[in-house]
Amino acid sequence: MSVAGESRGRVQQMRDKAEQLKQAAERATDPQERQKLQEKARRLQEQSQQEAAMGGQGQYPPD
Q1: Measured in Å, how far apart are the chain's first and last C-alpha atoms?
Q2: Distance CA 20, CA 36 (A)
């Protein structure tokens, strides 16, 4: 796989994870847990946008 293809795959994985976190936040009954999940999703979404803009030169964030 090319570097560009790997980058797109990594960015897509990050976006998918952010979407999963958003959905988990919607299901969360504890307000603090909901906020924590929303923040994590927002940060991951921002990182995926930055990585996409940089062409995959960034590092994949830890879980």
Answers
A1: 24
A2: 13
CA-wise closest residue to 56 among 2, 17, 1, 11: 11
Query: How do the pLDDT tens digits run along the chain, 63 residues long?
Result: 566 677 889 999 999 999 999 999 999 999 999 999 999 999 999 999 998 888 755 455 555
| Sequence-separated (6 or more) residues with CB below 8 Å from residue 1 | 9
Residues 6+ apart with CB under 8 A from 14: 44, 45, 47, 48, 51, 60, 61
